[in-house]
Amino acid sequence: MTMLLEAEAPTTTAPDWELVYQRPQTLVDAPTHYCPGCSHGAIHRMVAETIDELGIRGCTICVAPVGCAVFAYKYFALDSCEAAHGRAPAMATGLKRVLPDRIIFTYQGDGDLASIGGNEILHAALRGEQISVIFVNNAVYGMTGGQMAPTTLTGMRTTSSPYGRDPLTQGRPIHITEMLATIPGVAYAVRRSMHSVAEMRKVKKALRLAFQAQMRGLGLSIVEILGACPTNWHLTPTESLDFIRDRMLPEYPLGDFKVDERLRD
Amino acid sequence: MARELWKGNEALAEAAIRAGVEAFFGYPITPQTELLEYMARRMPELGRAFLQAESEIAAINMVYGAACAGARAMTSSSSPGISLMQEGLSYIAGSETPCVVVDIMRGGPGLGNIQPGQADYFQLTRSAGHGDFHPLVLAPATVQEAVDLTYISFDLAFQYRTIVIIAGDGALGQMMEPVEMPPMREISQERPDWALTGVDDRPPRTITSLYLDADELERTNLRLQEKLQRVAANEQRWESYMTDDAEFLVVAFGTVARIARSAVRTARAAGIRVGLFRPISLWPYPAAALDQIVSRVQGVLVAEMNAGQMLEDVRMIVRGRVPIRFLGRMGGVIPMPDEIAAEISHIARVNHRSNGSNGKSPLSERSTVL
Amino acid sequence: MTRGAITIQTDRCKGCGLCIQACPQHVLVFGEEFNARGYRPVQLDERERCCTGCGVCALVCPDVVFTVYRQPVRRAA
Fold first, then answer.
1. Core-most of B68, B177, B205, B212, by most CB within 10 Å?
2. Does the predicted TM-score (pTM) go above 0.80?
3. Domain B238-354 is in which class?
């Protein structure tokens, strides 16, 4: 069967073919500005799928960050707003406090959440704010061209750590999700990765549990997702997945750091 | 309604509650903290949102979030805290989201002190954050006026989709005065058509201040400027006191205007025909009203608790027509009535003597910082 | 072996190649032409093997260019 152009979907040729996969309703049918192979695109899609599957599109509000994902609000078919750099958890808090029956989630990068926004995510967690946080860790500041982030690996070169991140002067990578997992107000804190099909499926499950934690009012939920940044890593998209597996996993092991037992049933 | 004794900060809080504030996010900072404490007691009683944030930065962004939902949201702080809020204010202005902010000004710069001050004037009227925007800044001089201005602040904020700042100072916040509280207003549940609520059965709404395309951002700015012109045209507020036959004019706002009022009476008793012009809206500045009075007087005294900030607005309006004398006390020092009265008699005397000679007053514009 | 089919929004493809690597049947290759954005979109190449409609391409694709269909499995008559 030769390649099918969009127009001739097989359903026209063989009406009884079963549709297996299509764009989720919560994802706007528009091209994105993300670089080729950037993990944001697929993460957006999985978030949108999760919202569709949970049937909560009508009551979900997205708080976009400053960073590569600043345009998240253009890609989610949701009511959304765009927070100042690092302040998404505070903005989400304001939204949740006046819309307690709505699902509020922030979508943030590592610079946004773990650097300038460290205090905001810390106190949202301390308050057990009923919001979900999608935290994409790609070890650099992507939007501004690949500077060092709190999650930049030891020895990793970036445009602001050109000699490789030096632990003596620039500290070591931050493990913020583990830190947040120690806080009683946090109901769900896990780290997943985008570097393989199997791991991507786990990301999807984690997103679902995060939203469910909020739907049940169990406290703050955060899913840290290791993602690729081919452009700023100067690697091809496939090499970037290897980078995650070979270089990021040793520093950032995957797993569940906190799962409220009420989430299990 | 009976008049009761109210502390400024608490009166401001209760006025906001009666105006229908739905969410308050604040942070402790003297001399404003009683407002936060009052909200901490009252808001939960009424089932409304109250939260002490982890910082003023977080507080203003929580206000931004709540305001995006179309809720009447508010914060309060004092000078250093307002500095921390500037980025948030710029985002709120850039996305035309309404909110109310109370600034109980204190001595600065830096940590300064906790005494009253007026040195946030530039910050509030010139640059409340990056980019071209102006909050609507109202400066009450009495606790009653603070209540009345706060009571209408949310309506103004939502009418123009802008930030309304109530600019008091440590004196106003801490003093107690008899006040008649306005009636409790019902919180309206319906939300504006731009508010985020969850899409349900309509296209998604987005609230952002990001416009990467320059033309689009310029169009947004032009729209903002057009709105600010409407605000400027409709929301100028001031009070004139004994200015009809005045030969000399004192210009002052807030606490200093109250002190100047007694100085004016003292000077009048001493035969000097002086009046007081008190701007209530610091932005938009009541320029036309001041200009009209200036055309009839021979000298102006500007008195502030700063190094001369409103002074610059007055200069622009006076345009050199008459000499301006300035009395500025800083550091939280409050000028006394007799100090102001002395300055009034100075400009009167100097002007009187010069009229005897060639009529051109030797007193060029001079600012004395006592 | 179930048979599958895909449609590809070639104008959205950024030529990242993640689907090519991930496809278990290795039936995706870079096309010859360029799309409007200057990328070489992927295309189906079923010369040796066929698409089974597993949907892995759609899972890994950052730009949601794939729609995946599967032929319903007919019970042995």
1. B68
2. yes
3. alpha beta
